[in-house]
Specification:
It is a single chain. Helices cover 28% and strands 25% of the residues. The chain contains 17 helices and 26 strands. Strands 2-1-6-5-4-3 form a six-stranded mixed β-sheet, sandwiched between helices. Helix 6 packs parallel to helix 17.
């Protein structure tokens, strides 16, 4: 496809559109009228383009491309449709009239959002369009989203009729893969790996999850005891196994650990704990990959599989600890945040936390709550947003009590191209800063270094670029303002002393315990440790966004869809928080099933 220069990015404000709109607009009538024209046009790329504004977006998730693509502007969208419509033959369009709504998030920003379903030659798909008002009184689409929901002839096994026979769960031979190798090996039994294994099982794909810990959920049990998920539980439902309505809004880490264990058992997922993948190599047999797995007791198994999914986590690498001179002279205790358990272990001691991200804030707050003296050493500026004001804005009314069903909310989330989302978040960041004004002014007064995120887009850009550099505050920031959490950020650490830390400006900080809340090595490094060195250069970046605003490799094959990616065909990654893992696991499972059934040949 010939590349086109993307138009400059702007929000479709009423001022830019030269239009006005009344809040009592008949959204149903407008959406129906536009949709009739859209359906008629969907065999002619040029006719479709006439229904979109010049600087519009079209985001496709496997429905028309077998990839994750975002197209910007008339020329790019026209060529995309001209190339792809004949290949996928979209048909049977239906408008979901009950989901059509008018939105006016700002007084100068308005759209009509509507859902539709359709079929292609390979599957069942859904779509969302957003119409904006023009100066002449007409409405055109600013964004269109299309996403694959299922494959023709291969539905998820979640509907009636059920098996009414007695089922005591999988037998030992099945779980041990005595008679056959799995089709997929999933490396990592955290939430990402388990969710994907569940998706694959519902599609009839045999998968083995390999988890290095002794028990499912131990990756949460081994963290600090006050840890909790920073999104409301309405965001974090697992597929096929939602939380009960009595669940706490913010899930404690230890409670989530037990839930994951229950999830794996209840869905009869094939999981090997106390097991570790030690190598993933090209197979010399008819399948693509040989996976070597070491089990407790010294047993090693070799599996010949078509697909390997790395679910080792965004932060699944080794703990990252900065090299600071004279560390061996320190008389106190050194910990990484992954080794810290509870402030109760350090009663009567002085604790220093190096770092100022979520873990640093959580550990510092835990210390204060246990009466332990703590100082945070801040090394760089951070975007801080209060949970009270930030989370409702981030969620936009989607993942809330009484809100849309989780699958609908996920589709809405996907329907905003990430580049467009950044524009919205620039406004949102300013709004939240005004709501958090007292807290932020208090932090500045005590010298805490703040920023507004990349391109002033708050947390969103930082999530996509670094998966860090921001903090959703649940109380630690006010403790910093009040002086209950000490702050040291006026000079860099020079070296350790027997009593603590010496800084470049000559100041010192005496302490008994230093906790490095400094993160983990790159997710890509974890993958490379398992792959032969001759494949390393073919592994694409894992996190971060590509030039279209899509995740580089998360949810995709590691080598991409280009010619060079063929040698890594069948290697996948899934990672991120629960909601991202829930969303992208669906697409990975559909792609794997399509490969296995011969529906997808690897070409777009």
């Amino acid at each position: 496809m010939v590349p086109f220069e993307a138009p400059a990015l702007f929000l479709p404000t009423l001022q830019r559109l030269g239009s006005t709109v009344c809040s009592n607009v008949d959204a149903q009538a407008v959406a129906k009228a536009w949709f009739v024209l859209f359906v008629e046009a969907m065999s002619d790329a040029t006719a479709v383009i006439d229904l979109l504004v010049d600087d519009g977006f079209w985001r496709d998730m496997l429905a028309l491309t077998w990839d994750f693509r975002t197209y910007e502007g008339r020329d790019a969208i026209r060529q995309f449709l001209a190339n792809q419509l004949p290949k996928f033959g979209p048909s049977a369009f239906t408008l979901c009239e009950d989901l059509t709504e008018f939105y006016m998030p700002y007084e100068d920003l308005a759209w009509i959002q509507a859902f539709f379903n359709f079929d292609t030659i390979v599957g069942h798909a859904s779509g969302i369009f957003r119409l904006v008002p023009l100066a002449d009184g007409s409405w055109k689409a600013h964004t269109v989203y299309t996403g694959l929901e299922g494959l023709r002839g291969f539905p998820e096994k979640i509907e009636f009729p059920r098996n009414h026979g007695v089922n005591c769960g999988p037998g030992t031979r099945e779980q041990e893969f005595v008679d056959e190798d799995p089709t997929v090996v999933v490396i990592g039994g955290g939430h990402s790996g388990l969710i994907l294994a569940a998706r694959l099982k519902m599609l009839g794909v045999n998968a083995l999850v390999v988890e290095r810990n002794d028990r499912i959920g131990d990756n949460w049990r081994k963290r600090y005891t006050s840890l909790f998920l920073h999104e409301p539980f309405w965001c974090d439902h697992l597929p096929y196994f939602p939380f009960p309505p009595s669940w706490p809004v913010f899930t404690p880490g230890l409670k989530f650990a037990d839930w994951l264990d229950s999830y794996a058992r209840s869905l009869d997922l094939n999981v090997w704990t106390s097991a570790r993948a030690v190598a993933v190599e090209p197979s010399a047999t008819g399948r693509r990959w040989t996976v070597k797995v070491a089990r407790e007791g010294g047993e090693e198994r070799r599996f010949e599989v078509n697909h390997v999914v790395f679910a080792t986590g965004l932060f699944g690498g080794a703990p990252r600890v900065p090299t600071i001179p004279h560390q061996d002279t320190f008389n106190g205790q050194l910990l990484h945040s992954s080794q810290y358990r509870t402030a109760a272990d350090h009663s009567g001691k002085k604790v220093t936390v190096v770092g100022s991200g979520p873990s640093a804030h959580g550990i510092s707050l835990d210390c204060v709550n246990h009466g332990v003296e703590v100082t945070m050493v801040q090394r760089g500026s951070v975007y801080v947003v209060s949970a009270k004001n930030g989370i409702p804005k981030f969620l936009g009314g989607l993942y809330v009590e009484g809100g849309h069903p989780i699958d609908i909310a996920d589709r809405i989330t996907l329907s905003f191209p990430n580049k467009f989302g950044e524009l919205l978040h620039q406004r949102m960041t300013s709004d939240i800063a005004e709501l958090d004004k007292d807290l932020l002014e208090g932090l500045r007064k005590v010298g805490f270094k703040l920023n507004s995120g990349e391109d002033d887009a708050g947390a969103l850009g930082l999530v996509w670029s670094r998966a860090g550099g921001f903090c959703i505050d649940f109380g630690a920031s006010q403790k910093i303002v009040d002086g209950k959490i000490g702050l040291k950020n006026d000079s860099n650490i020079a070296r350790f002393t027997p009593a603590g830390l010496l800084f470049e400006d000559g100041s010192t900080l005496d302490t008994d315990i230093v906790v490095f809340a400094t993160g983990y090595t790159n997710a890509r490094d974890t993958l490379l440790e398992l792959l032969p060195i001759h494949l390393h250069d073919s592994v694409q970046p894992i996190w971060g966004l590509d030039k279209e605003g899509e995740l580089n490799s998360a949810g995709r094959e590691l080598g991409g869809r280009g010619p060079g990616g063929k040698k890594l065909s069948g290697l996948w990654t899934v990672m991120g928080n629960v909601s991202l893992s829930r969303i992208y696991s669906k697409f990975i499972a559909l792609q794997i099933k399509a490969y296995e059934e011969g529906v997808f040949d690897g070409k777009c």
